[in-house]
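pasting for the record
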Amino acid sequence: MALFKIVFSLLLLAAAEECDNSERDEVQLLQAQDKGREIQPDWTKIVDAAKTAVNSGIGKVTTQLSDALDTANTKILAAGTKFNQSVEKFESKANANFTVSQNLSAFKSLIDANVKQFVPSYNTTLKQVTTGLATTKTVMGAMGQKELAEKLEKLEGTVTDNLRALADSTQAMAQDMTQATADNYGDYFATMKKKLQFISSTSASFKSTFESQLEAFSGALLGPLEVALGDKASTQISDLTAKADLVLGNLQQVVGNYSQGLKTIGETVDVKLQNTNSEGFFGKIFHGLFR
């Protein structure tokens, strides 16, 4: 019965959107009584109009979200590549005879260069995904799909809260390190590691929560989408959830490498902070990722 209501509401909405002025006149005539008889509407025409309207609206829901995730993925991987290049540059200029002050200056430059990559990438991702969700939410609202609109609200809140947290904490970490000196570097480095741990855990929880909420949304979307796309509906939903898993997995990996890489490199600033022996500043961690 619930699915019938969804289909029926979509049919009525579609008919209203597709009919031009002359068609509306025809509908009015069909609804009028002729000598006490009620003339039945042309349901074939209404169903055809419904399919056209549905395909132009709800049929594009997964496409809009997929496009937003594609853009986000490009930004995330670009930031990861840039970070790896910065680490290689840092290693190439390293000198065992550098003082703590010289090492700290190079480390600050490394952080600054990459904050300029990661913070904008978080903000751009936020804009792309929330714009896609907002557009989809408008379609759902216009079609009276309250349940779907509410689930989209949760998805939008999760994206906004987590990406803002990642951007703000990354920016704050970089800002804190600008205050460090050779004398107090140990304290600032300890604070930085705590922030990096928060960034990594936020990325992991973001992936888990978003995927759970997307699954709930997709389950509610399947019925209406099947009306528009038929057998293609389940494929589109599967593609969307797979893409979300890929993008958020890449985000988690990039953030994890970024966090662990900064911790490892940060220990080389002051030899007293080093607690591992490695074949390079990042060789064992990155091993060519994002090259």
